Amino acid sequence: MTTDPITDENLVAFLDGEASEDLSARIAQAMAEDPAMSGRVAALQVETDHLRQGFDAVLTAAPDIPVPTPVVEEAPVVSFAWGGWRAAAAAAVLFAAGLGAGWSLAPADRSDGWHQAVADYQVLYSTATLTNLQMAQDQQVESLARTSADLGVALTLDQVSVPGLEFQRAQILNFNGQPLAQLTYLDGDGNPIAFCLTATKDDAAAMDQEISGLNAVTWADGGMGFILIGPSPSKTLTDAQERLATQIKI
Amino acid sequence: MAKPSLSEVQAGLPELMSRLWRYGLALSGNRDDAYDLAQATALRALEKSAQFQSGTRLDRWCFTILSSIWKNELRSRSVRRGQGLVSVEDAGLTTPDQNDVNVLATQVLNQMMALPEAQRETMFLVYVEGCAYAEAAEILDIPIGTVMSRLANGRKRLNETLSDKADAT
């Protein structure tokens, strides 16, 4: 009787309990008769239990990851300049941690990048934070010019003006050694809004999100990542996003 | 009213997120990429929930999505960023309780992360997630024979490196 030679794939299926009864019987017999066959099986032995245990330990170190909310049809449909934006919505999520700090050493540490850092900062803002620092227009222009220079992108007051939002000032911050520009506004109800920009690699379509209890719209275009964030209604932010994305071309 | 498949996906996703993250980590070796992969997978699963067949396994369906997002969209970005795989200790993935079993598990884990991606991913699905060969083949969109040869090669390599290590001590 001639049979096909027993391959390593056959042996693995045998070890994993995926071999047919017939194949299992052939392998068992071959192992009993031929020490070389036992050696081949031994060379494929791995403690798969250890593998599973190792990865189960990894599971306990998983961060708390919220399930994202897809943009639904009844949301204000803003005519973004990017095609196929619904399909690209996922890309915006991917982008969210794009500038993350790489490896994050603390197991429980969530590492969702600069959007989260901006949100954590913005949460501390109140109306008074901005009204107490009210600048004259020439100071506003100057703060914008200085910040633009630090960011390496020329921004004019016209480009960053949004109807219904009152521009307050600009300042340069830092995220992981990269300049991050923060422009602050007050909406008609006195809600503090931040518009932040920092360099990024991948483009991402605009996406509504809620980060740390604040409404936010994030997007990226031409090597620059953007976020608009504040306690304002989502519509205020998506309208502003549309305006800013049109006005600012990197 | 929500369609049955959408509500099923919505209901199942929250408890799946950490396993999606873990699969993402096995693929990318990077916590941030793993986080992005888990989120992108969940988002796409919700958007494509109409394609989910009620009564089938949501975790397997999501693994298929995650694998495809990694290969088609995220892997190149990760490579561009130049982030190589890092050992599990550096990733902060070891448990504080380092008993013998954990030490062994950590060792195996490190060796597995050093395997080529195709072998690593297939071994992860079969040995960690407990997928049958046929399930792994479907998730990875490869023939079942390829699943077996990846497992054979991965097992051989792990066996070699782990016995080298045992010999050295």
Gist of the model:
The complex is a heterodimer of chains A (about 250) and B (about 170). Chain A has about 250 residues and is an alpha+beta fold.
Structure description:
The complex is a heterodimer of chains A (250) and B (169). Chain A has 250 residues and is α+β, with helices and mostly antiparallel strands. Chain A is 41% helix and 20% strand. Chain A has 10 helices and 6 strands. Chain A has helices at 8-15, 21-33, 35-43, 48-60, 85-96, 113-122, 127-131, 137-151, 157-160, 234-247, and strands spanning 166-175, 178-186, 192-199, 204-211, 214-221, 224-230. A 6-stranded antiparallel beta sheet of chain A has the order 1-2-3-6-5-4. In chain A, a hairpin with a 2-residue loop joins strand 1 and strand 2. In chain A, helix 2 (21-33) crosses helix 3. The N and C termini of chain A lie far apart (74 Å). The termini of chain B are far apart. The model of chain B has no long low-confidence stretch (mean pLDDT 83). In chain B, helix 5 packs across helix 7. Chain B has 7 helices and no strands. Chain B has 169 residues and is mostly helical. Chains A and B meet through helix 1, helix 4 and helix 5 of A and helix 1, helix 2, helix 3, helix 4 and helix 5 of B.
Write the layout of secondary structure elements.
The complex is a heterodimer of chains A (250) and B (169).
Chain A: H1 8-15, H2 21-33, H3 35-43, H4 48-60, H5 85-96, H6 113-122, H7 127-131, H8 137-151, H9 157-160, E1 166-175, E2 178-186, E3 192-199, E4 204-211, E5 214-221, E6 224-230, H10 234-247
Antiparallel strand pairs in A: 1-2, 2-3, 3-6, 4-5, 5-6
Chain B: H1 4-28, H2 31-47, H3 58-80, H4 100-113, H5 117-128, H6 133-140, H7 144-168
Helix pairs in contact in B: 1-2, 1-3, 2-3, 3-6, 4-7, 5-7, 6-7
